[in-house]
Design brief:
The structure is a single chain. This protein has about 160 residues and is mainly α. It contains 7 helices and no strands. About 60% of the residues lie in helices and about 0% in strands. Helix 1 runs parallel beside helix 3, helix 1 packs across helix 5 and helix 5 packs antiparallel against helix 6.
Length: about 160
Amino acid sequence: MAGKTRPRTASRVAAVQALFQAEQAQTGAETVIDEFVRHRLGKLPGDGGFEEGRSPDAHVPLFARIVRTATEQQDRIDAMLADALTPDWPLARLDPVLRGLLRAAAAELWMSDGPPVRVVINEYLDVAHGFFHGDEARLANGVLDRVAHLLRPGEFPSAVAG
């Protein structure tokens, strides 16, 4: 097997997929987490990787924490995302995968003990490039930057008063 696996990135990809699936099926966090752990995460004989909808190297605790946080805080996260979007592009108008990505990233930003803001944003931009080939990554970058400023203002240099 060539190349280095990235379990935390795999966890984020799986969290986006799980949040998409939970929204589409209207299921709760624990149901979708259980399904992913049993059928889509980890190594199962004869099963493939990302191209077959699996995340074999995912770090399950991170995956579960992102999904739980995104669903438990969804109303508050969605309000922040809606405020960060332009009025002509409300959250409901976004592609559901992009909505799942923004929710997962915002959930990770919500975690005060999580990785630095720039790491979270860069990771989710990588994930966005895996799902989309248009302007979605640029939109995600702008929205996540605004949400990060709200959730973790201490990680940004203060504006110098003139």
